[in-house]
Write a structure and sequence with these properties.
By secondary structure, the chain is α/β, with parallel strands linked by helices. Among the domains are: about 5-85, Arginyl tRNA synthetase N-terminal domain (Gyrase A, domain 2, 2-Layer Sandwich), CATH 3.30.1360; about 165-250, no CATH class. Helices cover about 50% and strands about 10% of the residues. The protein contains 21 helices and 13 strands. The strands form four sheets. It has a four-stranded antiparallel sheet. It has a four-stranded parallel sheet with strand order 6-5-10-11. A hairpin with an 8-residue loop joins strand 1 (about 30) and strand 2 (about 40). The structure holds arginine. Arginine binds near residues 118, 123, 313 and 330.
């Protein structure tokens, strides 16, 4: 439920009764227990305007607040804050309702927004690298989250499949054809190096490679056939990674750079018509006030650029796909690029003014010593190897190994290992650089997926030991239950905010508080111990159940699974 909105409404009603009108009322979570559950601090600016004492106004307002529903107590504090305490009975009944609902009371939007989430975007000429890993993980979570909240999400994988390097690559592939090109393409990095080696020293090969570029662009059957084959194999490698990571991207979501080829001249024509283009050194450029370097949309030789393709994609997404929010989950180092193309797209009318364009930027992945993530010999880390290692390491971290047969242990290790890779990436503010640290991500302590999965499994083991049925009836009995239940009810508020800010780490931070508080609750409020009356036990079981369901749902939005024993 949207609990904050509910409290805001109550405060707003009280303000209106006191003949005060505010544009928007927004309570905040109290920072300390002694301040209650929520605080309202909108009185002070108002008092300035009204030239009245803020405490007087606050006192007047609280006399109009009903304290028999959600709110049980209100107090004026400090220079004119209003502190708000929520009612245990009301919270209990809300929580019981949430528990009975499969979506935990989380509503879906009445007016969904059509959102394009552009993520992953590997380049077909190269091995997928750690930067794409981050984009894939963060983007998939964002798409899951928006889908769950009811938006119409269109996932788009903007793969790099066009450019001069493909001439060289397909010329090389052609030669290898008889000796099974696809086997050679297993290691794309090596394939690229070998092709480049030939290109650099053999004039004949280099000439053919250049001819092939022209031929693909001109639609030559044979070359296009080779190119398609190359892309198919390369994309297949990426799909192996998606599969390992349980990422929701399929071939249908691929709108490669080449997809926009036909639109590129139209984009330039349109920009020209709008008077945006200046020719500089033969290249068609767009100068934006305040920017030192212009955006080049067409080179002197007629070739188009990354920016031109992105302008065409923006146009397509807005006009054909009808998107009202377009989110680009791309490395922070491309911030300048997106700032420019967003600006040009809006100014030139390629995209309507009311469309939200956002660069969901993320930082670089670093190793423990703070250097960009590389293999020991300085090469790029292969994602497939990295993910395999995660699974191997996860096996070591599982304490209940003996309770599993080999096959189920493999499955479990997969859930734990991949979960750890995803969670640790998602759990930091995405804009920060991210330090990849095996020990930390597979630790049982701290803000990790393993900690979440353990908490979930612990609840499942309580349920297993209990032989009655677990009901939905929650009755808050003390302070820790009050805090835990209130936190669980806030789930929807957290998800909505995380969706608005495109910020998955708000979800992990929340889940971490839930689990930590649950552990405290579980320590102080035993569930199965003898001598506890049935109503109390029933309520504690229900609180544990709501906790487990919240963890499970939260992790599932992050694309992470849970297990019953770990
Ligand atoms: N292929 C690009 C890269 O590796 C990422 C694509 C991001 N999406 C976009 N529409 N530009 O840097």
């Amino acid at each position: 439920m949207k609990i904050k909105e509910h409290i805001n409404q109550i405060i707003n009603d009280a303000l209106i009764k006191t003949s005060i009108e505010l544009d928007s009322v927004s309570v905040t979570e109290a920072t300390k227990v002694e301040f209650g559950d929520y605080q309202f601090n909108g009185i002070m600016p108002l008092a300035k305007i009204l030239k009245r004492n803020p405490r007087d106004i606050a006192t007047e307002v609280i006399s109009s607040i009903k304290t028999n529903g959600a709110i049980v107590k209100v107090e004026v504090a400090g220079p004119g804050f209003i502190n708000i305490w929520l009612n245990d009975e009301w919270l209990s009944s809300q929580a019981s309702t949430l528990l009975a609902d499969e979506r935990l009371g989380i509503t879906t939007k009445e007016n969904p927004t059509r959102v394009v989430v552009d993520y992953s975007g590997p380049n077909m000429a190269k091995q997928m690298h750690v930067g794409h890993l981050r984009s894939t993980i963060i983007g998939d979570t964002l798409a899951n989250l928006l889908t769950f909240l009811g938006d119409e999400v269109i996932r788009q994988n903007h793969i790099g499949d066009w450019g001069t390097q493909f001439g060289m690559l397909i010329a090389f592939l052609e030669e290898l054809e008889d000796q099974s090109g696809s086997e050679n393409l297993r290691d794309l990095e090596q394939f690229y190096k070998d092709a480049k080696g030939r290109f650099d020293v053999e004039t004949d090969f280099a000439t053919r490679a250049r001819e092939y570029v022209v031929k693909i662009q001109g639609g030559d059957e044979h070359c296009l056939q080779l190119w398609k084959q190359f892309i198919d194999i390369s994309l297949g490698h990426c799909e192996e990674i998606y599969e390992k990571l349980a990422i929701n991207l399929s071939r249908d979501d691929v709108r490669a750079e080449s997809f926009y080829n036909d639109r590129l001249p139209l984009v330039v024509e349109h920009l020209d018509k709008m008077g945006k283009i200046e020719v500089s050194d033969g290249a068609k450029c767009i100068f934006i006030e305040g920017d030192e370097v212009p955006t080049i949309v067409q080179k002197g030789d007629g070739g188009y650029l990354y920016a031109t393709t992105d302008l065409a994609a923006l146009w397509y997404r807005s006009e054909v796909l009808g998107a009202k929010r377009i989110s680009y989950v791309v490395d922070a180092r491309q911030a300048g690029h997106f700032k420019q193309v967003f600006h040009i797209a809006k100014e030139s009318g390629l995209v309507d003014k009311d469309v939200l364009l956002e660069h969901v930027a993320f930082g670089t992945m670093m190793d423990k010593s703070g250097k960009p993530f590389k293999t020991r010999d300085g090469g790029t880390v292969k994602l497939a190897d990295l993910l395999d290692e995660a699974v191997i390491r996860a096996k070591d971290a599982i304490t209940a190994k003996d309770e599993y047969d080999t096959e189920s242990l493999d499955e479990l290790a997969h859930i734990v290992g991949i979960g750890a890779v995803k969670y640790s990436d998602l759990s930091i503010n995405r804009e920060s650089n991210y330090i990849f640290d095996w020990d930390k991500m597979l630790s049982l302590e701290g803000n990790t997926s393993l900690y979440q999965q353990y908490a979930y499994a612990r609840i499942m083991s309580i349920f297993k030991k209990y032989d009655g049925t677990i009901g939905n009836e929650i009755k808050i009995g003390d302070e820790v239950e009050h805090r835990l239940v209130l936190l669980l009810i806030r789930f929807e508020d957290i998800l909505q905010k995380a969706a608005k800010d495109a910020s998955p780490h708000q979800i992990t931070t929340y889940l971490y508080s839930v689990t930590t508080l649950f552990m405290r609750f579980y320590e102080s409020n035993p569930i199965l111990k003898d001598g506890i009356d049935e109503a109390t036990r029933g309520s504690r079981l229900a609180i544990a159940s709501l906790t487990a369901k919240t963890i499970k749902r939260g992790l599932s939005i992050l694309g992470i699974g849970v297990v019953d024993k770990i």
